[in-house]
Write a structure and sequence with these properties.
Nict_dMeBzImd_PRibTrfase_bact, EC 2.4.2.21, five-stranded parallel sheet, binds nicotinate mononucleotide, Nict_dMeBzImd_PRibTrfase_sf, globular, Nicotinate-nucleotide--dimethylbenzimidazole phosphoribosyltransferase, 8% strand
Length: 336
């Protein structure tokens, strides 16, 4: 059960999160210097392995139990025609996830990961944020707690993702409110709106900003402009931190949810890496603001944890090399 019952309680949890295990990290850095390869020849795989080792508190770990969680929710703002698809697609895709027919089902299997799907009150969309806050405090805390409780205690790597028609509008509004800039800087085509749709979406984001920008910290902004699946992703990312489970972020919406934590408590995302760079236009700008370099760039703009799921294989491979390779001494290979 979640260790908080209101937003202040969640803020207190964020303020007391564990930090990286410096000894395990140093041990991994030292081991990396001895592995049978020229220095830095495994590029970013080396950084990823050392980061993972530090968070696990083990200088030579491997990955056995990756978990992927997809949270789904509906958005009041979808009634303003901000998506290329109708809101009922959220629930229809949840059924598709449950029947194994979506992209994420195939990608989770390919990555050897356990997939959990949580639908969050689909018959109760959030409020349209151009009219008032998207969620009450009770609603946002319930969604944060749903995310918190969804993380498996035995997971050793977590990917969070989402499904929610209209949620790129929420994510754009959150990014603008937290990071700064205009609605147009952050608003993209999502599922594929045309030029008129994009102009309408920019207007909706701008109206949301006018009402909610500067009204509070990251989690208060999440309450005002976010949605249940965004809050649940934030809750799961925080829970993973409390359990020292490293996290791979997915695309534009997932990163906006994560940003709500970072803009509440700097360093809240130190246990997270960016799985990929989405084709949603402002994702790169958001990752830059969070100082995160994406692992993959495959032109994905699907969501549902797909890019994060693909990155699991890269992180696993990094740890297989780091923990499985022989040292120069063990293999009798001469140094430089
Ligand atoms: O992850 C991304 O970067 C991403 C980019 C564009 C769209 N999506 C997905 O598309 C849906 C939101 O798009 P929209 O147009 O309804 O706002 C939602 O279900 C997301 O998972 C996801
Ligand atoms: C079909 C469809 C599948 C999705 N998966 C994640 N977001 C989505 C949006 C749509 C429209």
């Amino acid at each position: 059960m979640a260790e908080f019952s209101d937003l202040d309680g969640f803020r207190a949890v964020l303020a007391e999160m564990p930090t990286i295990d410096a000894a395990a990290h140093a041990g991994a850095v030292e081991r990396n210097t001895q592995l049978t390869k020229p220095p830095a020849a495994l590029g970013r795989l080396e950084d990823v392995a050392q980061w993972y080792a530090g968070w696990r508190g083990d200088a030579r770990p491997k990955i056995h139990a990756p978990q992927i969680i997809v949270f789904a929710a509906n958005h009041g703002v979808a009634a303003q025609g901000v998506s290329a698809f109708p809101p009922e697609v959220t629930e229809q895709m949840v059924l598709n996830f449950q029947h194994g027919g979506a992209a994420i089902n195939q990608l989770a299997r390919a990555a050897g990961a356990h997939l959990d799907v949580h639908a969050l009150e689909l018959d109760r969309p959030t409020m349209d944020f151009t009219q008032g806050p998207a969620m009450s405090e009770v609603d946002v805390v319930a969604a944060l707690a749903a995310g918190w409780d969804a993380v498996r205690l035995d997971a050793d790597l977590l990917v969070v993702g989402e499904m929610g028609i209209g949620n790129t509008t929420s994510a754009a509004a959150l990014a603008a409110a937290l990071i700064g800039g205009d609605a147009a800087d952050w608003t993209g085509r999502g599922t594929g709106v045309d030029n008129a749709g994009l102009a309408n979406k920019i207007r909706v984001v701008a109206e949301g900003l006018a009402l909610h920008q500067g009204q509070g910290d990251g989690v208060e902004t999440l309450r005002r402009l976010g949605g249940r699946e965004l809050a649940a992703m934030a809750g799961a990312i925080a829970r993973a931190r409390s359990l020292r489970i490293p996290v791979i972020l997915d695309g534009f919406i997932c990163t906006a949810a994560a940003a709500c934590l970072e803009y509440t408590m700097k360093t809240a995302l130190d246990h997270c890496i960016a799985g990929h760079l989405s084709a949603e236009v402002a994702h790169g700008r958001m990752l830059q603001a969070l100082d995160k370099e994406p692992l993959l760039e495959l032109g994905l703009r699907l969501g549902e944890a797909s890019g994060g799921a693909l990155a699991i294989s890269i992180v696993k491979a990094a740890l297989e090399c780091h923990s499985g390779m022989a040292t120069f001494a063990e293999a009798g290979v001469s140094g430089a």
